[in-house]
Write a structure and sequence with these properties.
Helix 7 crosses helix 9 and helix 10 runs parallel beside helix 12. This protein is mainly alpha-helical. The chain is flat, with a radius of gyration of 69 Å. Helix content is 92%, strand content 0%. One of its GO terms (cellular component) is Golgi cisterna membrane. It comes from Alosa alosa (allis shad). Keywords: Coiled coil.
Length: 822
């Protein structure tokens, strides 16, 4: 009865205790839910028992049915009580028994403990829920702060980027403006520098041309004096070269003869070597046959010694011994023949060495002669080039002299070439003849040198062939010695071979026994290996299973690690984004600083360009000032010239002389001036065939201009002399007039006639001087105009020279490529 009443009473106490506290527990436990779902039958039994006890605890049971359980401990006790109820008697079910007071006290104490535990767990749960709420609030606050900071940072970045972009655009525009201004200033500077360089180059070229013309005249005078001495030296040298050529031809003839003799000797020696080689080959074959016979005889001897039953064994042994003696005698003969061949070989080797030494000496001599001839050929070629250059210079000087003589003898009829021209033409002809002779000698020497070089090459090839033949003969003799040594050692080797054969038989028997043992051991090893392989297969299968398990575990670990890595990557991404924002901000700051630096540099460049522009303007102002000074000087010189002309005209108006011879002379001078003006017109061809032709044309033009300058100087000197003589005559006439005036009182008639004569002379002199001065002025203006035209033509010719040089530079590599291709 106690057992029956105990669980019901306990339930009633729990319900009463919980109702007395007035705070039903609404915390749901997953464990209790699980238990209620797992054991529904026990719950239905408990409800049935509670319905049976309606007389005692109807109100309390109704509250217990509506209230859910609070903890796992109560569920455990309920399960135990239900198990006890099922195992109890029916009397307890009918209400006949009563619970014991001891169990009720224990249950009450237990209920109190459980209630205290529930309270503590409720407190802890409430605290944890509060902490969770606080943490969630903090996390939400942090997320809000992060989002706000991100938005603020993005807004700041956008604003700063916009400002920086505006600044960059402004800087780019300023840089473009500065670059355009810089290019304009650079172009202006380049134009001014080019103009200044051109002017300086023109001035330097004019000075250089004057100096070059002066130096050219002095050099031509020197070369004319040295050509005669050089011609004599060339004649002597040509004679010496002819003598050396004859001697070299004789030596070449001798060397050819010696080469033919050496060829014949070498052919004879090669034939003898071939014969000896054939004899040696036949002897080697015979030695091989003898060796084979000896081996067969030894084998037969062994067989007959082993066979003791035959009666004719002794006879056969004797026959074999006789054959052996015969073979030994034949081998001795062969050895003697080999010794003779060795001696002959040595003799041939000595002869070949002597011939090689002689040929080497001859080739060395020939090489030395060839080197000497090549050096002399180079010298002669350089001399020929020098002569050609001198001849070209003489031709140009002759042309200049001829032009000068033609200009000097314009009025006089051409009476034939002068002595100097004839001498120069004779010198040119002789120089040309000498050049042709030297060229022929040079070609002959080149041919001789080529023949000598060919002969030297042929001799070297023959020497190499002879050396190869000697090496072959030495190798053949060495092979023969080896054959003889082998033949001598065959006798000892046969006995050794028999003993070795016996030893080999014993060794073969031992090897067979060992082979049998090894086969047995191999069988045992194979069986052991098969058992071990079976064990290894099982182990491998187990290892495969373990590897599969490990692989599965690794995959699970990799999945978890991947999840961890994804979390870490997200964290790293957030950190990287923050770093990128910070690095972008730093880069923007650095770019802003760089832009400031560039702006400063551009400002410095602008300052430099402005300074350079100011300097260029100053230089331009200086050049303009110099040009103005030069123009003022020119105007002042023109004024001085006009004053001088007026003074000369005043002097000429006060004096007069009659001189028909001078009038004729003036006519000649005017004619010469007119002819000179006609000659000064230079016809420039439009196209030149080569650069040399253009250089010759330029040289002729320069010489012509120099001759015209000399003529003008001569004419000026003549006019100054005439002017001085006219002044002297005017002074003499004035003295005579004074004397006549003093003597007029004594002889009036004579004075009248003299005065009449004196009054007619000054007018003619004045007219003649006026005409001469006008001619001089016209000639001076024409010469200045011609000089300006010549300058322009010279510039055109220089431009053409540059074009021709460029074309020749482009043509030369093409010709080299074509020559290489051919």
């Amino acid at each position: 009865m106690e057992a029956r009443d105990s669980p019901v009473a306990q339930l009633q106490e729990e319900a009463s205790g919980e109702a007395g506290r007035g705070s039903p527990v609404t915390v749901s436990n997953p464990a209790s839910d699980n238990v209620s779902t797992i054991n529904p039958e026990c719950v239905s039994d408990a409800t049935a028992l509670q319905n049976c006890n309606q007389d005692t605890n109807c109100h309390e049971n109704s509250t217990d049915e509506n209230r859910p359980l609070s903890s796992t401990e109560s569920l455990r006790q309920l399960s135990q009580q239900l198990n006890g109820l099922l195992s109890g008697s029916s009397t307890y079910v009918n209400g006949d028994g009563a619970p014991s007071p001891v169990n009720e006290k224990e249950l009450e104490a237990r209920n109190q403990e459980l209630s205290a535990a529930l309270d503590s767990s409720n407190l802890t749960n409430s605290q944890l829920s509060a902490q969770l709420q606080q943490l969630t609030q903090q996390s939400q606050e942090l997320n809000d702060q992060l989002q706000k900071e991100r938005k603020e940072f993005e807004q700041k970045c956008v604003k700063e980027q916009g400002a920086m972009r505006e600044q960059l655009q402004v800087h780019i525009q300023t840089i473009g403006i500065l670059v355009s201004e810089k290019t304009e200033l650079q172009t202006a500077l380049s134009y001014t520098q080019q103009a200044a360089r051109q002017k300086s180059a023109d001035a330097e070229e004019l000075n250089n041309r004057l100096q070059a013309s002066k130096q050219r005249v002095s050099e031509l005078e020197r070369t004319l004096s040295t050509v005669s001495t050089q011609q004599k030296q060339f004649d002597k040298h040509n004679k010496e070269l002819e003598k050396e050529r004859d001697s070299l031809r004789l030596e070449v003839f001798r060397l050819n003869n010696s080469n033919e003799e050496a060829r014949q000797q070498s052919s004879e020696l090669t034939e003898q070597l071939r014969q000896r080689v054939s004899e040696n080959s036949s002897l080697t074959l015979e030695l091989d046959d003898l060796r084979r016979r000896l081996e067969m005889a030894d084998v037969m001897l062994q067989q007959f010694s082993n066979q003791s039953g035959h009666p004719s064994a002794n006879q056969q042994v004797q026959l074999l011994m006789e054959e052996k003696h015969q073979l030994e005698a034949h081998a001795a003969q062969m050895n003697e023949s080999v010794v003779q061949l060795q001696t002959e070989r040595d003799q041939y080797a000595l002869q070949i060495q002597e011939d090689g030494r002689v040929w080497k000496e001859k080739t060395e001599q020939l090489l030395s002669q060839v080197t000497m001839l090549s050096e002399e050929r180079d010298r002669s070629s350089t001399q020929i080039h020098e002569l050609e250059a001198q001849i070209s210079e003489l031709r140009s000087s002759a042309a200049v002299l001829h032009e000068q003589q033609q200009q000097a003898s314009v009025d006089s009829a051409p009476s034939g070439p002068s002595e100097t021209e004839q001498a120069l033409q004779e010198a040119l002809n002789t120089a040309q003849q000498e050049r042709d002779a030297l060229s022929l000698q040079y070609q002959a020497q080149v041919r001789d040198n080529e023949q000598l070089s060919r002969l030297c090459q042929e001799q070297e090839t023959r020497m190499e062939e002879l050396e190869r033949e000697t090496q072959r003969s030495a190798e053949e003799v060495h092979d023969r010695r080896r054959v003889l040594e082998d033949a001598q050692s065959d006798k000892a080797t046969i006995s050794r071979a028999l003993a070795q054969n016996r030893e080999l038989k014993d060794q073969l028997a031992e090897l067979q026994n060992g082979f049998v043992k090894l086969t047995n051991e191999n069988m045992e090893l194979t069986s052991a290996l098969q058992s071990e392989l079976h064990v290894k297969k099982e182990l491998a299968r187990r290892m495969g299973q373990l590897q599969e398990d490990l692989h599965n575990g690794k995959e699970q670990l990799e999945e978890r690690s991947a999840e961890v890595l994804s979390v870490c990557e997200q964290r790293d991404q957030y950190a990287a984004h923050l770093q990128q924002y910070s690095s972008g901000y730093q880069q923007l700051v650095g770019e802003r600083e760089e832009l400031h630096k560039r702006v400063l540099q551009q400002a410095q460049l602008m300052d430099r360009l402005q300074h350079e522009q100011v300097q260029g303007q100053v230089q331009l102002q200086q050049s303009h000032q110099q040009l103005q000074d030069a123009q003022e000087k020119l105007t002042q010189l023109a004024r001085d010239n006009e004053q001088l002309k007026s003074e000369v005209q005043d002097l000429l108006n006060g004096s007069a002389l009659t001189s028909t011879s001078r009038d004729q002379g003036d006519g000649l001078e005017s004619q010469s001036l007119a002819e000179g003006a006609e000659k000064s017109a230079i016809a420039i061809p439009e196209d030149f065939d080569s650069r040399e032709e253009m250089e010759e044309f330029l040289q002729s033009v320069l010489f012509r201009v120099e001759s015209e300058r000399d003529e003008l100087k001569r004419l000026l000197d003549m006019e100054t002399r005439l002017h001085q003589t006219a002044l002297q005559q005017v002074a003499a006439l004035s003295q005579q007039q004074q004397q006549q005036a003093e003597n007029s009182s004594s002889s009036p008639n004579v004075s009248i006639t003299n005065m009449g004569d004196a009054g007619g002379v000054p007018v003619e002199v004045h007219e003649a001087l006026r005409v001469a001065m006008e001619k001089l002025q016209e000639r001076f203006t024409s010469v200045m105009q011609e000089k300006a035209d010549l300058k322009e033509r010279m510039e055109e010719l220089e431009h053409r020279c540059i074009q021709l040089s460029g074309e020749t530079d482009t043509i030369e590599p093409k010709s080299h490529h074509e020559a290489a291709a051919h």
